Structures are given as structure tokens and as C-alpha cells.
Amino acid sequence: MKLNWMHWFNHKHKHLVVKFGVAVLLMGLAFRLFLSTSNRFSPKLEAPFPEKTADSEHPIAVQFPQNEDQDEIPFPGKETQFPEKETHFPEKTGDSEPPISGLVPEDGDQDQIAPSNGKCDIFIGDWIPSTSGAAYNESCPTIENPQNCIRNGRPDTGYLYWKWKPRYCDIPKFDPGRFLEMMRNKSWALIGDSISRNHVQSLLCMLSTVEQAVQVYHDKDYRSRRWHFPSYNFSVSVVWSPFLVEAAIFEDFDGVASSEVELHLDKLDKKWVDEYHSWDYMVISTGKWFLKTAIYYEGNEVLGCHYCPKRNLTELGFDFSYRKALSFVMNFIVKSDYKGTIFFRTSTPDHFEGGEWNTGGNCNRTAPAKEGEVEVKEVNKILRNIELEEFQKAAAEASKHGVNLKLLDLFQLSLLRPDGHPGPYRQYHPFEQGKNAKLQTDCLHWCLPGPIESWNDILMEMIVNG
Ligand SMILES: *[C@@H]1O[C@H](CO)[C@@H](O)[C@H](O)[C@H]1NC(C)=O
Ligand SMILES: *[C@@H]1O[C@H](CO)[C@@H](O)[C@H](O)[C@H]1NC(C)=O
Ligand SMILES: *[C@@H]1O[C@H](CO)[C@@H](O)[C@H](O)[C@H]1NC(C)=O
Ligand SMILES: *[C@@H]1O[C@H](CO)[C@@H](O)[C@H](O)[C@H]1NC(C)=O
Ligand SMILES: *[C@@H]1O[C@H](CO)[C@@H](O)[C@H](O)[C@H]1NC(C)=O
Residues annotated as region Disordered (predicted)? Predict the structure, then answer.
């Protein structure tokens, strides 16, 4: 399967630039909106600091009506509401269909037995009904307004009643008390773009059921922040570094760029590198920002660009810079003599359907998809392929150098959750009478609470049994 995938990739590669020119421009714009300003897109609706504004903006009275809520909670005995658990899977559609998990050979798909280390692949599986529901509720103070789907009036709650089930084993739910015990005197950093921010909020909310974190640091834009759990002397940071490499970004708070991103493919972003050795655990990721219009540098010389028709520069394509930047980052990591644990998280797909972010695309599903039901977009395939290849190269080196580098491959389980995004409910009660503002739909970030909690179930499993 790996071979097929490579074949597919090489075949397509030649046509990349042409084929994705327009699509990528659009994606670039979309992610400019989402990734840079997810909490500022509409300042009237969303302040970046929910701690300060949540109460005044969303009076307690405006809460989800209890009765309706209960009506929608699937409970035992009503299992028929759920799609039946799959016992077979759609046949592969052939060479043209690249594998979802690049690390599992196709043959292994059918008779995927435990690999030699005796562990099953926890990234391959299905979402199955679960009655336990959300790990926390909408009053968790670290949820930012655009992800607080319940408070924003999302009417369905079925998306909260699913659990990720690896196909050949089981993973327990995240245990916040146990996690905090294990993390005494330790520190975590989640490094990347706004999906990392989304992830850190999920983690903080899960932990807040045991102890409320205290924010001890924020940069001036509240993009990089650190929280401390006093009883455990445990700290969690989110580090804003959307490219991981050094980038000059010329965007205002509304995501409007006055110039192309200047991306140095051979310099690491100091934001994370300067503190690198201070953290015990890191979850590092990147992705969609590479789709933006950018000028690429190496050794301070211009190499070319991506989507810069007004400049007399060579179009190199985002795949060029993504591979080069990731390779550079990985090379640093594997030789870093780092003593902690690094998770490289794959980028996760968006779920705009029936259009893109700006052409009426939405994500109105209310239940997970089954394997094969959701199309993997070309752009996501390309990013993913590069991630897996660069990781695999690095993993071999890392073990040689004694660096504990692990793949946190959340692509597939995320792909199957088109129901997990805010959609229009990134705004507060978007369909309220009298509101005629144009609605921005978010099919990229995840509702909190929501499927993103599974990411922490998996992290916990990898820490305990990894
Ligand atoms: C939400 O959770 C908190 C803490 O677990 C609890 O005190 C509160 O009553 C819950 N609120 C709702 C609306 O369920
Ligand atoms: C945490 O650090 C304190 C102070 O250095 C020490 O007394 C304690 O034993 C440490 N706890 C753990 C679990 O390492
Ligand atoms: C907290 O943990 C740090 C290591 O992360 C350690 O240096 C420090 O002594 C600890 N403080 C206390 C009060 O345990
Ligand atoms: C574009 O760049 C090429 C090579 O650097 C140069 O030969 C050409 O004259 C430039 N064209 C314009 C319009 O500047
Ligand atoms: C859901 O979105 C699709 C487009 O992706 C649209 O065709 C359909 O009508 C929508 N359904 C509802 C109930 O809004």
C-alpha cells in the first residue's frame, strides 16, 4: 500500500502546481481566516479571552434548555438510533485511493494482527456509540467562544456520544486524576497553529474536572500561553508557531495580509526552540499555514514562492516548502539530545462539504462517518503524505540518537468526524431572529466538548502503555 501511495504521489506530483493553483489560493484564504484569527474573525461575537468576557457576553440564563437536551441524549436501550457497528468495511477502491494510514501496509489491513511489539495500531478503528457523553461541560472556562458549540446554541448533542475504538484493541478513557498524578513536577507544550490551541483547551477542560489551571503566562496576543496546576506543580503551554520554521507574517488581526509570508525554510522558529529543552513532553504539529501565499528563503536567499503571480519568482508549490521545512525541523529534533517525549501530530482534515469555506460549504452532519464515506481532499492528502514520509525518515534517526519521537496520527479518526465542528455555531446563536450578519462556517476547528477529547485518550494510552 505504501508503494501504491508513493506511486500515486509521484504520478500526481508533476501536476500539483497547476492542478491546485486555484484551490490552494482559496484554501490559503480560508485558513488565513481560520488559523490566524479563529477567535477574532468577528470581534463583536468573539473576544479572544473568554475568561474575561464569557460572563458578560453569555449570560448564564442563556443555557441549553434541559428538557431538549435530555430528549436528545441517546441512552442505553435506544441503541437502534445508532448506526450499527460495522463488521465489514468497504472494499478498497483500488490504486487511486491512497491509504488513510500510511504506516499500515495494505495487506495488513485485512489480517492486521498485533505488530511485532504486541501492540495494535490505535490510530485505525471506528467511532462506536458510547453512553458516557462529554468529559466536561460548556462552563469550562478555558473554552474559547468560537468552539463553545453548546453555549452558542448548536441544537444537536448526539455528536458527544461516541468513542474511538481501535479496531484490534481498546483504549481506556482519559483519567484526569491519574494523568495529573503522573505529571507531578512536569511540563507539556503543544506547539503549532490554532488546532494546537483547540487541543490544549480540550486538555485543560478535561483536567479542570480535577483541578482548575491557573494561567501564568500569555504573550500580547494571547496566542502563546501557559497554565499551571498548583497542587501538582504541572504546567501546560501552548506555543504559537504555525510554521515551526521562522516566518515573517504580515497580517492584521482580521487576517488581512499586507504582504506575502516570508518563510525561512532553514531557520527554526525561536518561539519553541528557545524553550525546547525545558519541556518534558511536546506535541508538535503544523500544516495548513503552508498553503498560504509565501516567499521561500534559504540562507537568506530567495528560492521562489507559492502563489505570487505578481512577482517574478519561481513557483515552487506548498509541497516543496512543507517537505523542506518539516525535514529541517525533524533533523533538528533527532539530533537534539532531547530527554523527554515528542509527539509529532499529523495535521487534521477540514470537512467543508457542498462547497468551500467561502462558497457555501458547510458541515451539518450530526453523526460520525464510516470509513470511505468522507472524501479526503487532495490538499490534505499531500500534506499527510509529506508528514508520514518525513516522520518515517526521522524516526529511524531518532532511535539511533536516543530521542523519543512518536507519531500521533490523528488524521483518520478526525476524518471520520465531520459532525464535530462548530459550523455556524462558531457564532453565538447564529440563527437568532434579527441577526442578519453573514455567517462564517467553521468546519476545521472542533467543538468543545467534542471528538477532540479522544486525542487525549490516545495520548494517555501512549504515555501509559506506549
Ligand atoms: C458543569 O460542570 C461543572 C463542574 O464539573 C458543574 O459544577 C456544573 O454544575 C456543570 N454545569 C452544567 C450546566 O451541567
Ligand atoms: C516534585 O518536586 C519537589 C521539589 O523539588 C520534590 O520534593 C518532589 O518529590 C517532587 N515530586 C515528584 C513526584 O517528583
Ligand atoms: C516544580 O517542578 C519543577 C520542575 O518542573 C521543579 O524544578 C520545582 O522544584 C518544582 N517545585 C515544587 C515546589 O515542587
Ligand atoms: C524575471 O527573472 C528572470 C530571471 O531572474 C529575468 O531574466 C527576467 O528578465 C525577469 N523578468 C522581469 C519582467 O523582471
Ligand atoms: C447539509 O449540507 C448539505 C451540503 O453539504 C446540503 O445539501 C443539505 O441540504 C444540508 N442539510 C440541512 C438539513 O441543512
Answer: 66-99
Q: Is the pTM of this model over 0.90?
A: no
Is 101's C-beta closer than 6 angstroms to any atom of ligand 3? no
Query: Is the CB–ligand 3 distance for residue 233 below 6 Å?
Result: yes
Atom 1 (ligand 2) nearest CA: 185
Residues known to be catalytic: 194, 442, 445
- Whether the CB of 231 sits within 6 Å of ligand 3: no
Ligand nearest the Cα atom of residue 209? 1
Total domain count, the chain: 1
Residue nearest to atom 7 of ligand 3 (CA): 185
User: Which ligand neighbours the alpha carbon of 314 most closely?
Assistant: 4
Give the span between the Cα atoms of 462 and 208, in whole angstroms. Answer: 21
Cell numbers found for residue 248 = 515573517
Closest ligand to the CA of 150 = 1
pLDDT digits over 332-383, tens only? 999 999 999 999 999 999 999 998 888 889 999 999 999 889 989 999 999 9
Atom of ligand 3 nearest to the CA of 280: 5
Question: In which residue are the cell numbers 462539504 written?
Answer: 353
Cβ(235) – ligand 3 distance below 6 Å: no
Q: What is the pLDDT of residues 425-447, one digit of tens each?
A: 999 999 887 666 678 899 999 99
Q: Are the beta carbons of 206 and 136 closer than 8 angstroms? A: yes
Flag whether pLDDT at 121 surpasses 50.
yes
- For residues 136 and 456, the answer to whether their CB atoms sit within 8 Å is no
pLDDT higher than 50, residue 114: no
Q: What is the largest CA-CA distance in the chain?
A: 66
Q: At what angle do helices 378-400 and 318-334 cross, to 10 degrees?
A: 20
Helix (H, G, I), strand (E, B) or coil at 311: coil
Residue type, 147: Q
CA distance 243 to 241: 6
Sequence-distant (≥ 6) Cβ neighbours of residue 80 within 8 angstroms: none
CA torsion through residues 170, 174, 177, 180, sign: positive
Q: Determine the Cα–Cα distance for residues 284 and 288; give it in Å rounded to an integer.
A: 14
- Of residues 98 and 281, the one with the higher pLDDT is 281
So what's the pLDDT on residue 356? Answer: 85
